[in-house]
Specification:
This protein has 2 domains: 2-45 and 98-205, Ribosomal protein L4/L1 (Ribosomal Protein L4, Chain: A, 3-Layer(aba) Sandwich), CATH 3.40.1370; 47-96, no CATH class. It is built from 7 helices and 6 strands. It has helices at 21-24, 30-44, 103-119, 136-145, 160-166, 182-187, 195-205; strands at residues 2-7, 13-19, 123-126, 151-155, 172-176, 190-194. A 6-stranded mixed β-sheet has the order 2-1-3-6-4-5. Helix 4 packs across helix 5 (160-166).
């Protein structure tokens, strides 16, 4: 069982916490992480690209000119795909790119992502992150004390002062445990866990 230090908002070590090996010490398989991240990104695509086919473009109700005698190629409609302003052939239409990876694979990938942060010494545990007021400067002071500026912060409950104080910092994201996902863990350099959130993560993944 891995043991990591727990810090306070001043960056001082206050205690230690045990991390379950079934979550924070599993073999890392890059292809599994890739599969889950690809799924997440596909599910985020809006799929709203849209074009009009020749039947949807306005106009073109009559033959533009007579069939013979003009010296030009015959034409039946000004909305033919070969005409400027005509319909699009096989163009994109609104669709969903979403698909699912088995739940067991998603859960295992989440364990691998957490393990990778621990192995890279990029996992920081903090006892609590309750700020006295909504102030970005105060939030940055805590981040400087923890010696990090690029991090995903996982909270065990809604901490309004933390969420509002950090929203203008582009290299930081705050998530609650139920929203924890592989893509965000890997996207940020460091992972900061508020101590009570560890038990919630264990409850979610140890099934």
């Amino acid at each position: 069982m891995a043991v990591v230090d727990v810090y306070n908002v001043k960056g001082e070590k206050v205690s230690q916490v045990d991390l379950v090996e079934e979550i924070f010490n599993v073999p890392i398989k890059v292809h599994v992480l890739h599969e889950v991240v690809t799924m997440q990104l596909a599910n985020r695509r809006s799929g709203s690209a849209s074009t009009k086919g020749r039947s949807e473009v306005s106009g073109g109700g009559r033959k533009p000119y007579r069939q013979k005698g003009t010296g030009r190629a015959r034409a039946g409609s000004i909305r033919s795909p070969v005409w400027r302003g005509g319909g699009v052939v096989f163009g994109p239409t609104p669709r969903s790119y979403a698909y699912k990876v088995p739940k067991k694979v998603r859960r295992q990938a989440l364990k691998m992502a957490l393990t990778s942060k621990l192995q890279e010494n990029c996992l920081i545990v903090i006892d609590q992150f309750d700020l006295e007021e909504i102030k970005t400067k105060r939030f940055l002071d805590v981040m400087n004390a923890l010696n990090t500026d690029d991090a995903l912060i996982v909270e065990d409950r809604k901490i309004e002062t933390l969420e509002l104080s950090s929203r203008n910092v582009p290299s930081v994201k705050v998530l609650r445990t139920e929203g924890l996902n592989v893509y965000d863990i890997l996207k940020f350099k460091n992972l900061i866990l508020i101590e009570p959130s560890i038990r919630q993560i264990e409850k979610r993944l140890l099934l």
